[in-house]
Amino acid sequence: MASVLGLFLGGVITAIPVVTGVAEGVSYQQKQNEEAANETRMVKFNILVSCDSKDELAEEVDNGILVVRHERVWIVPRETKDGKPVPIDPVDDIQPPLHAFAGFYIQYPDDDRSPPERGLVSTISEDPPVLNWIYIDKNTYQARHGNRTASIEHMVGEWDWTEDESAVMLDGWEGFVAVDESEVPGWEDTPWGKEGLAWALYFDKDDNGLKGRKKGRKTFEIILGRRLQSEEDQLKQMEEANKKMQVKTQGDLKSQFTAPAADRANAWKKK
User: Fold this and answer.
1) Residue 209 within a domain
2) Domain that holds residue 132
3) Which stretches of sequence are listed as region Disordered (predicted)?
4) 115: exposed, middle or buried (C-beta count within 10 Å: 0-12, 13-18, 19+)?
5) If pLDDT is split at 50, 70 and 90, which confidence band does 152 have?
6) DSSP string covering 33-54
7) C-alpha dihedral over 156, 161, 163, 167, to 10 degrees?
8) Which of 13-17, 62-66, 225-229, 255-259 is modeled with the greatest confidence?
């Protein structure tokens, strides 16, 4: 078959990459089939943050939890009792409480990506229980969340877990960084600044300490640990979602899951 392909394309040498490509495609499809049958990829989890820096400011990041808000991903303190984000006082009565990342892995829907990439989604609210893609902005390397239209031009994968499945990886390694956005001029006037959200999640894509991108802001290398949600919690959330008469969608996805609720000024004091 290789020689036939080679002659058809003008030479035996050209047959090698063609056959190799077919083999790789078959191999990847087998991998996808295996993952489709592996329900653990669909088990919902929260993300806990750890930081081993001795810097005193690192205490604002260590033992934190990821939350999704304002189309960005933030690190906030978590309560010691139930491990949920430390509640904050909303800027007004309309704004919902902080929502902890609560998501799972799933293939990103883009026919132009070959091979396809494993994406990461999270609920972004309790009512309605909407799912968003978690992605890395191609220009700033900041972690953000949004629908398919917002994410497709950026880095959407390959998301994975470490060998022991205890922590989150992206592009084959744990290059995550916490960046202090409160050092950006005008931060206090932004929606997130008014709520005290300061530590944003970034990915050190070039493995150079965000050179040319952190712009003097304080940064810490961090580890994103996976905390699996219990079957009881997931069942309860599913039942609550199914009771709703209508479930809105965002990003070509529907969700049946929920999650919870951080002003920097008060949060660190309660930690």
Assistant:
1) yes
2) 39-270
3) 242-271
4) middle
5) very high
6) HHHHH-GGGG--EEEEEE----
7) 130
8) 62-66
